[in-house]
Amino acid sequence: MADTETLLAFKAGRAFRRGTTNFVDPNPTKGAILLTMGEDGLLHFMWKNRTNDHVEEDLILFPSDANFVKVTQSSGRIYVLKFSSSDQRHFFWLQDASSARDDEFVNNLNGYLQDPEYSPVWNSSSQQPQASTSTGSTGSNSQLQLNPEQLAQLQAILQGTRGASSQAPELSLSDILTPANVAPLFTSHPELIPTLFPHLPPDLPTPPSAEALQRIINSPQFRAAVSNIDQALRTGLLGGLVTSLGLPEEAGTGIEPFLRAIQEQADKERRDSGDQMDTD
Amino acid sequence: MSGDDDSSGWQLTESDPGVFTALLQTLGVPLIVDDLYSLDSESLAALQPLHALIFLFKWIPTPENAVAGTYDPDFPGFFAHQVVNNACATLAVLNALGNIPSLKKGPQLEELMTFTTGMDPQTRGLVITSADWLREAHNSLSPPSAISLDGLGLPKRSEDAYHFVVYLPVMGSIYELDGLKPHAVKHGVYDESGEGWLSRAREVIENRIATYPTGALEFSLLAVRDDPLSTLESELNALQSAGKQSEAAELVVRIANENSKRERWAFENSLRRHNHIGLVYNLLVALAKAGKLEPAKETAKNVMKERVEKAKTRGEDMDED
């Protein structure tokens, strides 16, 4: 594995969730977190056991998918590796006797997690990060841990097609369906408002109205639903669902295709109703 | 069904008084759940008759070694273990209801409680979790899974990090019922006079809050209490008949507040049950027809760019909401 390059390394132990509780117990085994660029061109986040030199965890990370965040409710130096694409959580605690360089390591780690091309910032007073032994020396199993979405993306990349984007998204539905964007519709195009009434909850305690609609759009429940739909669209797997809305299957492959299909649909409907009016 | 290993078909619910109260209604129990903003005697007195307190807090990673109070393996009341994480809110409710004497219950709940009499906490927890009707009642207040978001590996909402603990009086002592602890925890006897059990419960809860560094603990309190509406209405009738206008006016205000709270709960619950895809789609079509979708897209792109830049400089994660 001569082509693997260690980007950074620092002493850290693992911590594990206690059963199904929300408590995390640090495990005393001495270890290290190593971030490497594998010869597969992918970023590897590894945890190595320093007592037997085995790499016991090897996670492949996609750019901007993961973040290494301090657990603020804890007084210790406990961090969690969390993903925007799944609810995997890996907990660690920093083991270097001094915490003076904690921020330095963590900031650089997050820099790489966002973008493998990141240029690390090391304090001039400190040396290069400890790359303890050659990282390629993994005689043990490196378990690839990919959730189904990442597997699909990986397959798409390997087949040379573009699957759902795991890069930082370009835009979010939550920023389009804001009260600020929707409110002007009520005054500029009041005739469009009743078209929305059939889609309000059937058991709403108040009858459908523009006020009810405003209230709904401002509600946390609606915003959560928009956020869910946004995330579901980003997986690119909603082809089946969108056809039930009368959209082509391609519209379920991402947010841009979804919005494009909607614009086309709207233009078509406007043209059709425009034709009817012209015959007067 | 959910793609989660341990969810067993129980969906995540919000820990909101409106959600809890709707569950109580489904269970045929004439109680409501209200937010409790303070443990002072005035606030508690206003909520009487008050049957149980539910303390909910976000998860804390550092282990809490000292168990205040003592484990009571011979607890004679109702105590069930939490065996499915997502069921935690409903489990806490049942642990409360199971210990309220002379409580009117719907037939299914009555049967469930009778059936589990004498069972150990773990078995009780398993039986409760396998009650299909209960799971359906619990799930009825989360969005329908028509969108099949399960199995797509999407991040869970932060609500799932809440833990629920019930405090109530049983046979002269204050008990703490925590589905993640092996037994019910006894916190000593209380004095029936004055505030009764609430005084001791307040001490226990305040001591608990004090064990965390200030500001480190995000928590809320809920009160399980009698539904005040019918009582308020009969009081109002009595006052009006007796010609006590100003007192009657006060009650009118209280009843109006209570009703508007119920309306808000009903509104929010109907949103929770609803599949919003149709509304989202049609809103976007409306924006498109009005020529407002393109400009909204451009602004949204800029907003996202700024957000990503900020997140990069702070090294934070990208989850919204």
TrEMBL record, chain A:
Its main location: cytoplasm. Keywords: Cytoplasm, Nucleus, Proteasome. InterPro entries: DEUBAD_dom, Rpn13/ADRM1, Rpn13/ADRM1_Pru, Rpn13/ADRM1_Pru_sf, RPN13_DEUBAD, RPN13_DEUBAD_sf. Signal peptide: none annotated. Coiled coil: none annotated. One of its GO terms (cellular component) is nucleus. Residues 164-272 form the DEUBAD domain. Residues 124-143 have a biased composition (Low complexity). This is Adhesion regulating molecule. It comes from Tetrapyrgos nigripes.
From TrEMBL, chain B:
GO terms for biological process: protein deubiquitination; ubiquitin-dependent protein catabolic process. The keyword Hydrolase applies. PANTHER family: UBIQUITIN CARBOXYL-TERMINAL HYDROLASE, UBIQUITIN CARBOXYL-TERMINAL HYDROLASE ISOZYME L5. It catalyses: Thiol-dependent hydrolysis of ester, thioester, amide, peptide and isopeptide bonds formed by the C-terminal Gly of ubiquitin (a 76-residue protein attached to proteins as an intracellular targeting signal). It comes from Tetrapyrgos nigripes. It comes from the Eukaryota. GO terms for cellular component: cytoplasm. GO terms for molecular function: cysteine-type deubiquitinase activity. This is Ubiquitin carboxyl-terminal hydrolase. Residues 9-226 form the UCH catalytic domain. Residues 298-321 are annotated as: Disordered. Its EC number is 3.4.19.12. InterPro entries: Papain-like_cys_pep_sf, Peptidase_C12_UCH, Peptidase_C12_UCH_sf, Ubiquitinyl_hydrolase_UCH37, UCH_C. Keywords: Hydrolase, Protease, Thiol protease, Ubl conjugation pathway. The active site is at C88 (nucleophile), H163 (proton donor).
